[in-house]
Automatic annotation (TrEMBL):
Protein name: Ammonium transporter
Taxonomic source organism: Brachybacterium kimchii
Region spans: Disordered: 412-483
Membrane topology: Multi-pass membrane protein
Low complexity compositional bias, start-end: 422-435, 453-477
Record-annotated Ammonium transporter AmtB-like domain positions: 12-408
Cross-referenced Pfam families: Ammonium_transp
Transmembrane segments annotated in the record for this chain: 12-32, 44-67, 99-119, 131-152, 172-194, 206-226, 238-258, 270-287, 293-312, 324-342, 357-382
Length: 483
């Protein structure tokens, strides 16, 4: 083992990059939180925060060892080799760049966390929080960490695996490990958990597009740590990854918007934000493998393809609530496979032949199969032990108030608010016993006469103050096809 020499510049860059990637999980909470209906936003955001909490602990105890311990059969590392992140700096993944063991391990921790959080968007609005917590812990150990080992830890899908006899597989920052893995897991969970009540019939539009746009902006910012940080040091490769992340994402946003304009005759903020994420996903595996021109092409293709792919759930009949499949699985596949065409060293368009394209397809398929099988086993076992679905009454009233005894937007306030039969004292929620289902779609349900009578009084007019002074409250409910 060679002696370790600290490089303070590389270490500082990895600490900054790790912090940027960690920011992506709260950013995803905003992004997903804005996309759901108002009565489920807190639960949706909590699922991302729970992924952060569970992922950090599990990665420290076992995840890192399984991912980067000594190889066992090409599938996983020695689970106890680095238990509790106990290791020497000379054993660091980035020892050659002068980055200490804990810094490199912490950087990889943030990848595990965001991958887990991504899955939650496929099962929004309808699952038990406790089951999600249990799934999170088990999935990191049995699915994410082994996949990271197979791709980055010297396993079956790495340069040391059998596919390398064809060409060396390329996954710079997580096309297979993060996006194909999360997208496939999301699809499996959506199928096992089942559809939301009213899916395909009732409008289920995002309740806060500003939150979605804020989340997309923070994700784009954090993704520079994701991709440029994966260079392992502050060098030319990091610079190429930074530029490619920028231009591919810009091209994907434009590609999605153009597709919307042609198909729907309008451009939407939700489409622009989704295009941003699609571009970030697609460039992840290819960030250091393509030129800036190639990144623009890759991004534009990903934006258009993902814009079309998000509609497949209606044709095929699965409720992927927030388009984890259409954006992350499809975007991850596009980015991973197009390396075989656009890679400047071995891509088909650069005279490298078809071998790189073939191996990229093979590792993408292998990642999908592994993730699907492992996720299905975990999900089915948990369904039998704990159950996945909340009750129909809880889902109709809203998971925020029925499971968490909270509401995101106290637009009414005071005693005028109606209480859910499931809510804890001091917390308000949708009406009980009214015989109607509060489809708020981002707006508070109208007050009943008794509630209006007890609304707070404006001292200047001696009349009840408006529960919602905005002009939106007086407009008819929005309608339209669910996204």
């Amino acid at each position: 083992m060679e002696p370790f020499t600290l490089d303070t510049g590389a270490t500082a860059w990895l600490l900054v990059s790790a912090s940027l990637v960690l920011l992506m999980t709260p950013a995803l909470a905003f992004f997903y939180g804005g996309m759901v209906r108002a009565r489920t936003v807190l639960n949706m955001m909590l699922m991302s925060f729970a992924a952060l909490g569970v992922g950090a602990i599990v990665w420290t105890l076992l995840g890192y060892s399984i991912a980067f311990g000594d190889d066992i059969g090409g599938l996983l590392g020695n689970p106890l080799q680095f238990f509790g992140l106990h290791g020497e700096d000379a054993q660091s993944l980035l020892a050659g760049s002068g980055v200490p063991f804990l810094v490199a391990a912490g950087f990889q921790m943030t990848f595990a966390i965001i991958t887990l959080a991504l899955i939650s968007g496929a099962i929004a609005d309808r699952v038990r929080f406790g089951t999600w917590i249990a799934f999170s812990a088990v999935w990191i150990i049995l699915c994410y960490a082994p996949m990271a080992h197979m791709v980055w830890g010297g396993g079956l899908l790495s340069a040391d695996g059998p596919f390398a006899a064809i060409a060396e597989p390329i996954d710079f920052a997580g096309g297979t490990v993060v996006h194909i893995n999360a997208g496939t897991a999301g699809l499996v969970l959506a199928l096992i958990v089942g559809k939301r009540l009213g899916w395909g019939r009732d409008p289920m539009k995002p309740h806060s597009l500003p939150l979605v746009m804020l989340g997309a902006a923070l994700l784009w910012f954090g993704w520079f740590g994701f991709n440029a940080g994966s260079a392992g040091t502050a060098d030319g490769t990091a610079g190429l990854a930074w530029v490619n992340t920028t231009v591919a994402t810009a091209a994907a946003m434009l590609g999605w918007m153009i597709t919307e304009k042609i198909r729907d005759r309008r451009v939407t903020s939700l489409g622009a934000a989704s295009g941003v994420v699609a571009g970030l996903v697609a460039i992840t595996p290819a960030a250091a493998a393509v030129s800036p021109i190639g990144a623009i092409v890759l991004g534009a293709v990903a934006g258009a393809v993902c814009a079309l792919a998000v509609g497949l759930k209606y044709r095929l009949g699965f409720d992927d609530s927030l388009d984890v499949v259409g954006v992350h699985l499809v975007g991850g596949l596009v980015g991973t496979v197009l390396i075989g065409l656009l890679g400047t060293d071995t891509g088909l368009f650069y005279g490298g032949g078809i071998r790189q394209l073939l191996v990229q397809i093979l590792i993408a398929i292998a990642a999908m199969v592994f993730s699907a099988v492992v996720t299905a086993i975990i999900a089915l076992v948990l369904r039998g032990i704990m159950g996945w679905r909340i009750t129909e009454d809880e889902e109709l009233a809203g998971i925020d108030v029925t499971r968490h005894a909270e509401t995101a937007w106290d637009l009414v306030g005071g005693p005028a608010s109606r209480r859910s039969p499931h809510a804890a004292p001091g917390h308000v929620g949708p009406a009980a016993g009214t015989g109607s289902v509060p489809h708020d779609h981002g707006r508070p349900a109208p007050l009943e006469p008794a509630a209006v009578e007890s609304a707070p009084v404006d001292p200047a007019s001696a009349e009840p103050a408006s529960a919602d002074p905005s002009p939106v409250a007086a407009q008819p409910a929005t309608t339209g096809e669910p996204r």
